[in-house]
Amino acid sequence: MNPEPHAVALGEYHAAAQAQPNIALVKYWGKRDAELNLPVVGSISITLDSLWTRTEVRFVPGAVQDRVSLNGRSDESVTKRVVACLDLLRQRAHIDWGAVVDSRNNFPTAAGLASSASGFAALVYAGGRALGLELSEAELSILARRCSGSAARSVLGGYVEWTRGQLADGSDSAAHPMLAADAWPLRVAVAITSTAAKQVGSSEGMRRTAQTSPFQAAWIATQETDLAAARSAILTCDFDALALVSEHSCLKMHALAMAAQPGLLYWNGATVECMHRVRTLRQQGLPVFFTVDAGPQLKAVCAPSAIEKVKAALREVPGVLDVLDSGLGAGAHAIALGALEA
Ligand code: DP6
What we know:
- This protein has helices at 76-93, 115-130, 137-147, 151-154, 202-212, 216-235, 239-258, 269-283, 307-315, and strands at 14-19, 22-26, 31-33, 38-39, 43-47, 53-60, 67-70, 98-105, 159-162, 175-179, 187-192, 288-292, 298-302, 322-326, 333-335.
- It has 342 residues and is α+β, with helices and mostly antiparallel strands.
- The strands form four sheets. Strands 7-8-6-1-15 form a five-stranded mixed β-sheet. Strands 2-5-9-10 form a four-stranded antiparallel β-sheet. Strands 12-13-11-14 form a four-stranded antiparallel β-sheet.
- Helix 1 packs parallel to helix 2, helix 2 crosses helix 3 (137-147) and helix 6 packs antiparallel against helix 7 (239-258).
- Bound molecules: ligand DP6.
- Ligand DP6 binds next to helix 5.
């Protein structure tokens, strides 16, 4: 028989949470343990505020199956990953009940916009609360990491570092806060250049890269230098230094992945045009830099004073479908039940 879980804050093993995507400035690419989702390198990110995932989780005593809906639809591959994440929570709470999960994103899903990061951060937060687990920030980050590496960082707000860790069990590989969002309130413009789901997911891309890219060893060997440069830029709010290291880490990650066999090419023509546009703006004196993840969207990070000009310039690039805009925000947090649509 299952022992009863701890007292439940919101009643009926039911809770809701919100988390936002994060954008890596020093990238995570590669795993030292695929089962525990442990990275070969540490990484540094910023958490956004106006893009979000909202998730409601209800565990149903006696239920044997999970029911999962994302943006009102059920999808086999999403359900598989959500069930694996719920299993980690069930193990923690010593229960085996099925759950009903309803999750919404207010931005395109699975197109390189970090939907798995906000998705799993919101899921572990809501699921943990639904079961009354009282998890610390580090415990939430580790659970989120097991479901998707970058989700470890979306548990926290502002400027965040996810430590590589050394231990085989991954208990030292969690995210921790570096600087609050309002201590350096940069803005991010996201140029959407395609709404199609990416062809090669990050996990497969990382596996292929580690097995076949001739640059894998150099990637690992040089990461600590980038992390140190980004830490110092963030702690001193030095925009130029952060621009330099962030663009470097982005281009280096893509060069590494492009050199895999077959090569991973996440960009389209508009992505490249946007990179040039951002560099031209910077040469003209605007404080802005770009970064791109495992998809074709370009994220332009800038000072608040530059955001309108950056958005206008990106909108003019042929192939840009839309430009979203976000500030920096908080980590995963509880929201009222029934607030998914709000
Ligand atoms: C390019 O976190 O999506 O966005 O751990 O396999 O789920 P898994 O990968 P994921 O990879 C994100 C890779 C990246 C860089 C980053 O966010 O640091």
